[in-house]
Amino acid sequence: xxxxxxxxxxxxxxxxxxxxxxxxxxxxxxxxxxxxxxxxxxxxxxxxxxxxxxxxxxxxxxxxxxxxxxxxxxxxxxxxxxxxxxxxxxxxxxxxxxxxxxxxxxxxxxxxxxxxxxxxx
Amino acid sequence: xxxxxxxxxxxxxxxxxxxxxxxxxxxxxxxxxxxxxxxxxxxxxxxxxxxxxxxxxxxxxxxxxxxxxxxxxxxxxxxxxxxxxxxxxxxxxxxxxxxxxxxxxxxx
Lengths: 121, 108
Prior knowledge:
The complex is a heterodimer. Helices cover 0% and strands 55% of the residues of chain A. Chain A has no helices and 11 strands. In chain A, the strands form 2 sheets. In chain A, strands 2, 4, 5, 6, 9, 10 and 11 form a 7-stranded mixed β-sheet that branches. In chain A, strands 1-3-8-7 form a 4-stranded antiparallel β-sheet, with no helix packed on it. The radius of gyration of chain A is 14 Å and the shape is globular. In chain B, strands 1, 3, 4, 7, 8 and 9 form a 6-stranded mixed β-sheet that branches. Chain B has a 3-stranded antiparallel β-sheet with strand order 2-6-5, with no helix packed on it. Chain B has strands at 9-12, 18-23, 33-37, 44-47, 61-66, 69-74, 83-91, 96-99, 103-107. Chain B is built from no helices and 9 strands. The N and C termini of chain B lie far apart (36 Å). Chain B is mainly beta. Classes of the chains: A mainly beta, B mainly beta. Chains A and B meet through strand 5, strand 9 and strand 10 of A and strand 3, strand 7 and strand 8 of B.
């Protein structure tokens, strides 16, 4: 059974750096075609893709946020980490990680339950 | 990059058919994925590769594409189908995933 779980601070202050961890099980990120994405959703708004890391450790970022994002993986712990610098109240959102597969044309087939982050000014 | 356009809302009575569209300049050349998100829950993949269903997704959910518009069709609508629906593609030109703005489906 594939599961993902997001963890991180529920509250950060403006200008701080956010670090989120996605801990997964049931698949190996070093298997060809496997990836993990981060997606966020501000309250009442649409989903927004943030970043993806693949089995070869290649990294891809949202064009609008790439200067603030860093995605990495720790295969020994089955974790993917996302950092976002210079946080602002507009970054208040639920942040999700999701398994993403190249075989399915980058569909996100299993999602974590999400972690809510509030940015205070 | 480009924008995926969805109607903000659709509605259908129980037992009827609902259709949600997703339009964009290059939808015609992309695989389109659809997600269902019920209130307070994480999204769930319901259609991938434009028209395929993951295991466990009812046959009432189907996907199609014509030109630059992809369509999610929900047949025999049920009360439990009330949710937000999102389309998504991978843009290989800019190497990023893109989501539509979402459609809120109401069951009348």
